[in-house]
Specification:
With 473 residues, this protein is mainly alpha-helical. It has a domain of 124 residues. 70% of the residues lie in helices and 6% in strands. Helix 4 packs across helix 7 and helix 8 runs antiparallel to helix 11. The protein is rod-shaped. The chain starts with a helix and ends with a helix.
Length: 473
């Protein structure tokens, strides 16, 4: 189907194609006239994306797309809407209460009912890449829309503060209870440590343990020296009975006796060559030599007895020192056990102290957070009472009516043509084969002017008047 054929169809049904759009435009105009005027008030909010001065790095990642989307959802939440109802005192207005009762029968919360109605007129926009949120509220009363828009902004700011402060207060209560428990645990740990120190008589475990360890080392050194002395004494005792032993040889008295004995024997040897065995001088000298030998033997025995006594004393001292070492070892071992137990108790105290200090720090932080009522949202431009209505939108509605009317009018005109198809040009017959041509009507070669049409209409009109006048006669 060519464009010319479509034009011919529309020309044949021009009344439908023209009247339908006009009717729709007329209906749209009447509807716009009947619609009440709508007013829109707008307020802008700036979301501060800086870090929380209290939480610092622990704060949320403000400024992210997810955070801004969350703020939009908070504005549209029931909590904010119900807070707006309280701020605008709709729950105190008799007409509002009466409407709520008529619609719900009092079975639905009034704040929830009016909050849902207020949210229907609210529009929240957040520009991508921007930290500004725009709130627009639309209703019939210009004063009311400005008040509601500002109320939504203030309610949102209040809810953001509550959402941050309420958890801090709840955490503060929990930390207070925890602080009491940890303080009691710390005091109990300190009491156990103090009681143990008093029972054991120690103030600082390491100091006393070091002293006793040094004493043990000193006693063990004395024991080693005593053992050496005992070994030496035993060695001396074994050889002390022999005249040729070093102790006997080194004794001054024995050395004197040996010297006298050597002189006497030398003298006896010198006189025995020229005197007889019974000579008085020789007998006297032999008697003196026998006495010296006896004294030498007695003196050697005396020296040997001294070594035995020294050995006995050395062994006794060694035994005493060995007993002291064992006793000191037991004392050191006991102190080591006391030190370990004391260190365990001190670690308990330190652990309880660290936990208590951490809770005190968290209590201080949550206390600051619970008192920090500065929001991270600021009103950039408050809503003012609008002067001109924002609706109904005449231009948009009429333009839509024109578009819809034209489409519907053209569609109806073409539909009527297809329901009762007529031959309006030779092209309409091109789709039919085997149809004989009966006649071809040539179009009028010359077109009449407007004056000729007017003269023809005037002649017809005058003839019609003459005919009416001739009828009574």
């Amino acid at each position: 189907m060519s464009f010319l054929q479509i034009l011919q169809m529309l020309r044949a049904h021009w009344r439908v194609a023209a009247l339908v759009p006009l009717a729709i435009i007329l209906v749209a105009t009447l509807i716009n006239l009947q619609l009440p005027k709508q007013y829109t008030a707008t307020t802008s909010l700036l979301v501060d994306v800086r870090a929380d001065p209290i939480a610092g790095a622990l704060g949320v990642a403000v400024g992210s797309p997810g955070y801004m989307a969350t703020q939009t959802d908070i504005i549209m939440s029931d909590r904010v809407a119900q807070k707006v109802v309280s701020m605008t005192r709709l729950d105190k207005v008799p007409l509002a209460v009466e409407r709520w009762r008529e619609d719900t029968g009092g079975r639905f919360p009034l704040e929830k009912y009016w909050g849902d109605l207020l949210k229907k007129g609210l529009e929240v926009k957040q520009t991508r890449g921007s930290n500004i949120i725009t709130l627009s509220y639309t209703a019939r009363d210009p004063k009311f829309v400005a008040a509601v828009a500002n109320a939504f902004a203030q309610a949102y700011i209040g809810v953001t503060i509550d959402l941050r402060v309420e958890p801090a207060r709840q955490h503060g209560v929990w930390f207070d209870e925890r602080e009491k428990e940890l303080r009691e645990a710390l005091e109990a740990a300190k009491d156990r440590l103090s009681a143990y120190q008093k029972a054991k008589g120690i103030a600082i475990a390491d100091e006393r343990f070091d002293q006793e360890s040094a004493r043990l080392a000193a006693v063990m050194g004395d024991l080693a020296a005593a053992q050496t002395e005992t070994a030496v004494s035993l060695s001396r005792q074994k050889t002390s009975g022999d005249v040729l032993s070093p102790e006997v040889q080194q004794d001054p008295a024995i050395q004197g006796l040996r010297s006298d004995l050597a002189k006497a024997e030398l003298q006896l040897a010198s006189i025995s060559t020229h005197i007889g065995a019974n000579h008085p001088q020789r007998v006297q000298l032999e008697t003196a030599i026998a006495g010296l030998r006896k004294k030498l033997t007695e003196e050697a025995q005396r020296v040997s007895g001294t070594s035995v006594a020294a050995t006995r004393v050395a062994v006794q001292r060694e035994n005493e020192l060995r007993a002291m070492v064992e006793a000191q070892k037991q004392r050191v071992l006991a102190l080591r056990g006391d030190r370990d137990e004391l260190a365990f108790l001190m670690r308990d105290v330190e652990s309880a102290q660290r936990a208590y200090d951490l809770v005190i720090q968290r209590i201080s932080q949550t206390s600051l957070e619970s008192r920090f009522d500065q929001p991270n949202v600021r009103v950039l431009s408050p809503a003012v009472e609008p002067i001109t209505p924002s609706g109904p939108k005449w231009k948009r509605n009429i333009a839509a009516a024109v578009i819809v009317g034209l489409m519907l009018g053209l569609g109806l005109a073409l539909g009527l043509e297809f329901l009762n198809r007529r031959v309006r040009s030779p092209e309409d017959l091109s789709g039919f084969e085997g149809v004989p041509l009966l006649v071809a009507l040539q179009p009028k070669s010359e077109r009449r002017t407007f004056k000729e049409r007017a003269d023809e209409f005037g002649a017809w009109f005058h003839g019609l008047r003459r005919g009416r006048r001739a009828e009574p006669a």
